[in-house]
Amino acid sequence: MSYLSLFLACSLFLAGCSDTPTPSEQPKRPDAEKSPTSLNSEQNGCKRCHIPHQDKAHGFSCSTCHVGNDTSNDQKDAHAGLVAQPAHPASMAQACGKCHPDQVTGVVRSMHFTLAREVNLVRKAFGAKETLSGLTQIPVADAPKDPLQLADDLLRRRCLRCHPYSSGDPYPYVNHGTGCAACHLDFTDGVPTSHTFLATPGDKQCLQCHYGNWVGADYYGRFEHDFNTEYRTPYTTKEFFTRPYGVEYHQLAPDIHQQKGMICVDCHSGIKLMNSQKTGAQKRSAILCKDCHLQKSLNKSLPSNVSQEKGKYLLHSKGDNQQHEIPLMRDPAHTTSQDSISCQACHAQWAFNDTGIHLLRNDTNEYDAFWKLTTQGSWEVEHLLTYNLNPDTSTTLAPTMRDKINGEEKKGIWHQGYTMRRWESVQLGRDTNGRISVMRPVLDLHLSWIDEEHKVRFDAVAAQSNSKGLQPYTPHTTGPAGIFYRQRLQDYYRLEKEIKKP
Q1: Which long-range contacts (CB under 8 A, 24 or more apart) does 1-4 make?
Q2: For the chain, how many structural domains are there in total?
Q3: Exposure check for the chain: N or C terminus, fewer CB within 10 A?
């Protein structure tokens, strides 16, 4: 199959979409952080031009974090030595670390900061032998000589747009702060709404990175549309259509915990997110359903936000600030199968099943084959394609993308497309512990590269995986097991038996 035909593969027709955020996600306008049109003559220094709206805990001089000279009314003098992003990883030890040394020390080794699991999973599927400690160690490969170097270029320039070193794509609900500010400041359209630091990030902060068809979006019941314009709605419109997360999405059933008013940090506490647990290679902190829903586990150790009152277990949510009674596992299946079947194998209402993920590095100036694929989930690629395919444009943009770690512009843009996007059939398989778990085709990746001389350097090089790209996944689409979970398991057992036949 040629590299162009990969992106013209047919996808499913899906109906219904929603881009209207829930009330808790509605952003505030960032007027408070914008400089006023006229000077505030009653103030001196920074506040003569800026109105930061600081919280009480951070009500000190601007230069404490931003350096510069906050006593001068001259802009050049005031901005001398200015640190525009003190919470950025390059500066946060000097700025945030002065008051929060333990948090800064811990977070730099955390899974959110290093993305070590994701990076090594992809790299090893394309031949890597060593394990990297984090994304900053990914080698730079301007002219890849093998599939691993091509994968490294993909990671640095296309995939890793959501991490503490980057402010993300400039879509309305995606552009965020860097370093500590990514989670602890509120941003809208790339501008902080205030300098009030959030001790507890809300779901809006989480979804600035956890959007698209990844964990987080499923918690809100969002399944991203296909990129092809023929499989997105509205089909045609001359009106401006807002895509706050870059691509329209179908509104499916949200997770039952989200429906009840819980937010991400009710389960994923700051201690688990901001600190690393290491045993050899970096590992994730396990969060198990039984920690809250199995009475034996609760009797042994109550989670910090759970209390026991009058024989009931109550979770205090930071989302709606309400007490929620925790339903306990009572069905015999929960005790007889908990070690052999994951909870989501029965309770996941749907799952992400994007198969045939094709990525093409294109160094040429030819984009006609992609006129129906200008929406890419990447602002850089979308902007370049939209501009260069506009017949009224007399000039064209060079095919370049930024390295999302060091910020350098590099030759070639990365297109993305799918063979098929599905949600309805939850795939099952066995994880490394032999438990039946939900699987998703995370490593169903195919990489291609055509250079500026139109020479195909790599053509659909597939990731190497023993499980056909399937990896264990925990869909955040929890709901009642219903009447179909037994059939789901029976179908899996039947399939497993067929595969084992000689």
Answers
A1: 1/460, 2/459, 3/360, 3/448, 3/450, 3/456, 3/459, 3/460, 4/369
A2: 3
A3: C
